[in-house]
Amino acid sequence: MHDTRAFKAFRAVVVTVLALFTLLPLYVMATSAMKPLRDVQGPFTWWPSTVTLEPFVDMWTTVPLARYFVNSAVVATSATLASLVVAIFAAFAVSRYRFPGRAAFTTTVLSTQMFPGVLFLLPLFIIFVNLDQSAGIQLVGTRAGLVITYLTFSLPFSIWMLAGYFDGIPRELDEAARVDGCSPMGALVRVVLPAARPGVIAVAIYGFMTAWGEVLFASVMTTDVNRTLAVGLREYSTQTNVYWNEIMAASLVVSVPVVVGFLLLQRYFVAGLTAGAVK
Amino acid sequence: MTTTLQRPRKAPPASPGPHDRRRRARWWLPYALLAPAVLMELLIHLVPMLTGIWMSFTQLTKFFISSWTEAPFVGLKNYRVALDVHGAVGSSLLRSFGITCAYTMLVVVISWVLGMAAAVVLQRPFRGRSGVRTLFLVPYAVPMYAGVITWNFMLQRDTGVINHLLVDDLGIGSGKPFWLIGSRAFTSIVIVAIWRLWPFAFLMLMAGLQSVPSDVYEASAMDGAHAFRQWRSITLPMLRPVNVVLVLVMSLWVFNDFNTPYVLFGTAQPAAGDLISFHIYNASFLTWNFGAGSAMSVLLLLFLLLVTGVYLTVVNRRSQRA
User: Residue A214's CB: how many other CB atoms inside 10 A?
Assistant: First the structure.
């Protein structure tokens, strides 16, 4: 079957328009990161007056970017791993067992997606402060506080997606493993998880991107010690100067790892969505 | 398929043998598996939410922030103030609510249309398809703050690319307008939000299209159906389950969106871009009146519950009829 001329024209228009829309900010980010400061303080130019890599050098000293980078990496990685483990257990229970309270659990977890973040931002902050005062558990101004907060943000979608994925794996597989003497957990680890690898990878990507990009809670829960990139990038704007070239360089540097990782693993993500969420 | 119903009773002492072991009723196992998730949800979502609801009935201002349990109970006063459309607080909340509804509608509809167009166009192979697909997914993968901060730079009046492109290069309009203050701020935030959201619609719809068998299209092409007819009578119905979830999820995200206005406007928030989450955040943290802020959040939650409920009811009824 070949495409009609009208379809081809439609395709050309859609692809061109969307590609320009997508590319414009990426182009601005990449070229402005190579501009000297005076270029970004005057009228916009499509190309740097002199191509320089100085913003990529200076950005580490204007703002303690390296420290924020480490904080973001540690927080996002830990939150992703923790959320993955928690979601796998929960999704296995939801997919493989019928028990009283199952529907209540899935409904409640999914409906937390509806909560406006501002509703529990302050109470959560107060609870964290109180946990510190009464039990000595430090959660405000520490990475641990951010980790447990972020892991719950990706949890509902992860459980939902994984449960859908597990449902697609024939039960006969884990039953066979059980007959061979596996415990339920053994069946999960040795049979279900390997079969659900695309789903697990998809959920991990989602969890990492959620934690890496979160702004609202980071702006309230972080101090100098545990500040993440999401908040730190704003520090390039001072009273006297906005170092736009360094902001663009830093934006580029914080985007590249996530974008490359996502694009490399995107087929798993699509496969995970197809099998899990999209049913 | 569903044969593993576990009976809720205590297991007899384990006697070996694969058959017995399989039937041994570990009724507690699913609960143990759920426990970490439940614990985390309780700590981060449910308990804070209940605390928030309780706070909405109190006069929790900065005087009580260190001894927040002693804040005086004021009943429904915060709600009355928030809902009084003639008062200053109520009328600005209503305005912000209106802006947010318009914002949500525009962003979700346009993102869906763009995502659908791209998914349909990329459904059939052509040269460069995988490159285009990869490019389209980039905005979704770029961390939210990095993307929006770039847009902030682009929308600067004197140094931004948008004014340069429109006024200097294309000669549209006279004089460079402000994009981040005044009434144009609304247009700006809608465009920025679409840039970030449409790839998600594209991703979901693309995943959904993969489950549409291609021979259906071939059969209908034999019957002489045009591309648009095919889309309306095959693609759209097949994607219905995806669309039901996609539209709901996108609407909730966009309606509750805090990050986009926060990063795009910073503290200099224009009235035209006063989205409701941002409005409540400012009402709480700038005036230090957390009781009032919580009441507004609860009203917002009630509204979302209502809309979601009606939406799901309508959708389910329609799919039963079909």
Answer: 28
A3 lies in a domain?
Answer: no
B145 and A255 in contact by Cβ < 8 A? no
Partner B, chain A 258-277, Cβ-Cβ below 8 Å: 258-259, 261-263, 266, 269-270, 273-274, 277
Could you report the per-residue pLDDT of A37-88, keeping only the tens digit for each? 888 888 898 999 889 998 998 889 888 889 999 999 999 999 999 999 999 9
Question: What's the farthest any 2 CA atoms get from each other in chain A?
Answer: 73
- State the virtual CA torsion across A154, A158, A161, A167 in degrees, nearest 10: -160
B236 in contact with A, Cβ within 8 Å: no
The residue behind tokens 């979704």 is B140
Buried b (16+ CB within 10 A) or exposed e, A171-190: beebbebbeeebebeebbee
Query: Has this prediction a pTM greater than 0.95?
Result: no
Residue A16 lies in a domain: no
Q: Which of B43, B159, B168 sits opposite A41 (nearest CB)?
A: B159
Backbone angles phi and psi of A266, in degrees to 5: -60, -30
Angstrom CA distances, A107 to A96, A102, A157, B79, stand at: 17, 9, 12, 27
**Above 0.85 for ipTM, yes or no?**
yes
Domain count, chain A: 1
Q: Spell out which residues of chain A touch residue B252, defining contact as CB-CB under 8 Å.
A: 113-114
Q: Which residues of A touch B305 (CB under 8 A)?
A: 111, 114
Which tokens hold the place of B304? 């979302």
Superfamily for the B78-321 domain: MetI-like (1.10.3720.10)
Contacts of A82 (CB under 8 A, 6+ apart): A147, A148, A151
Task: Give me the DSSP letters along B38-95.
Answer: HHHHIIIIIHHHHHHHHHTTB--BGGGSTTGGGSPB-TTHHHHHHH-TTSHHHHHHHH
